[in-house]
Description:
The complex is a heterodimer. Chain A is α+β, with helices and mostly antiparallel strands. Chain A is built from 7 helices and 7 strands. Chain A has helices spanning 2-17, 25-59, 71-78, 81-99, 109-129, 132-143, 150-157; strands at 165-173, 178-183, 188-192, 197-199, 209-218, 221-229, 236-238. The N and C termini of chain A lie far apart (99 Å). Chain B is mainly alpha-helical. Chain B is built from 11 helices and 2 strands, in the order ααααααβαααααβ. In chain B, strands 1-2 form a two-stranded parallel sheet.
Amino acid sequence: MEKEIKKSQKLLNKITAEQIKPSPRWHFILRNYIFWSVFLIFVVLGSIAFSIILYAITENDFDLLSFSGSKIEFLFSVLPLLWILFLVIFSIISIFGIRHTKTGYRYSFLKILSFNILLSIFSGALFFYTGGAEKMERIFAENISVYKSFEERRISRWSHPENGFLSGLILENKSKDIILIKDFNGMKWEINIQDAFIRSKLYLNQGEKIKITGEILEDNIFTAQEIRKWEGRESRRKK
Amino acid sequence: MHISKNDCQKLSDEELVKMSLQDVEYFACLFERYEKKLVRYILRISSFSKEEANDVLQEAFLKIWKNLNKFDSSLKFSSWAYRITHNTIMSEWKKSKSHGKDRQIEIDDELFQNLPSKIDLTEEFQRGNNKKEIRKILNSLSKKYSEVLVLKFLEEKSYDEISDILKKPSGTIATLIHRAKKEFRKEAGRKNILFEL
């Protein structure tokens, strides 16, 4: 018993002699809040990344995969790889955040990952449907010079008339079967739309932006197989 | 110390934590309450001598003191104290390993030949039988297995308590215990002993 008292007394002596004080409570509370904040901030960022991925998927023409030469090259050009990478990084950081909260260790990695993914999907989808993804992507493109926006990537993908992909602004409806467009490089094209499939919600009015698949007939004359609205994908209708 | 043993006994761990923050003398009550248990735990999961175990405990209690405001009453104080002690053991063990002082008890084959064929680990350890042999098998297992076995069968902690001590999810603890039992049996089997776990 005497020995025990000595050990506890030794501990107390050390604490008092070295004036060791318990760290303040706010220090631990702050630490816990920081990790919760890291989790929440990166879940929000993950949701934004997910919504932009969703936006990219709905805006891209994956059905053209069969028309493209190199499938891998096509997928690389249409998949929002940067945003997929961002989503992975943000998810990892948010998982790190929650694991370091006071009781974060009680949940398995799989549980936290599933919760994180579901939260990102749910809030990301909400953000996408309210138009936030499109705005955010535009802000990103406008402020980061090295970032190539979906719009720029789409223009580059649809500016290959030699491969059957043409796009531009309708200048004039010359006749029932011929329209005149100006492509994104400033060249004028006469488009024969006689046998073309025209997607719904497309009226071929002057000033409308369109995407066309088909083939070059002769210099600056293009025969259209299918005409799509510039943004997004729509169901098909025959002209 | 102006606080009597009787005063200490009346208070719960959580009350002692609160009182310690007001008067450091109460901290001695917590130390004395857990001293034997934690020294025993240190000796069970490490190869430290009794003297070294006491130093580790002293170090662990200094950490407990410094972090006393961090104590979360949704946890059992004992789980928290075991956690800090466990972490202190691990850091001391790493230090001694890096200084080449890691001691592993040599397994005496002859001893194992003389053991009965079926042994209940918890019971045997409590009775004091075959302690040395059980410890040798535990020492031969990897740390992740030996620590869960010690906590579950020798310290008799629940899955949730082990989860709080090792900061791992309960499901992971259950899996670890399952694998550790298999490893323990395999190791014991090599010595022709059947342990009940």
